[in-house]
Structure formats: structure tokens, C-alpha cells
Specification:
The chain is of the alpha+beta class. The chain has one domain. It is built from two helices and two strands; from the N terminus they run E-H-E-H. It has a two-stranded parallel ribbon.
Length: 82
């Protein structure tokens, strides 16, 4: 189990690096390692999954989810059972 990885710099800033994130997720998939993305927060930073003010109870609209959150959500959905 891999915990606390993100889609941008370790300090939460910068920009989402989709190329490196894809390489990382492919590495985990090849080794059959489960994972958890670490930043399900509404902070104003690149790694945050939610935009500031998004509710903590879920049911988020597309407008409430960041680029990072969308990337991770799409990855999770790509692994759903049919």
C-alpha cells in the first residue's frame, strides 16, 4: 500500500505534472500496489483535490474539483468493476 502521494510538488505547490503522475501510477499498477492520494482537501494549492469552499461531505460538482482531483478521480474510475 502506497500512501500520501500527490500530483504536484511535495509541498503542494507548482502545477499538476500529469506525465510524472501517469508514470507513477503505471509503476504502481505493474507491481499491483494499492494507493491513496493524500490531498483530499479544499486548500488553494496544486495537489488539493477540491477547490476552496467545496463541502467536506462529498457530492462535488465538476466546478468544485481541481485539476488534480479530476485526474485522480478519473484514475479511480478507470479501475472500477464493470
Amino acid at each position: 500500500m502506497v500512501t500520501e502521494w500527490g500530483t504536484a510538488n511535495a509541498d503542494g505547490n507548482g502545477t499538476v505534472d500529469s506525465t510524472e503522475t501517469r508514470r507513477w501510477l503505471d509503476f504502481l499498477d505493474r507491481r499491483k500496489l494499492s494507493w491513496a492520494n493524500w490531498s483530499i482537501t479544499d486548500k488553494d494549492e496544486a495537489t488539493a483535490a477540491l477547490r476552496p469552499g467545496a463541502p467536506g461531505t462529498g457530492g462535488w460538482t465538476a466546478a468544485q474539483i481541481t485539476t488534480s482531483g479530476t485526474y485522480v478521480r478519473n484514475e479511480l474510475r478507470s479501475h472500477e468493476a464493470p
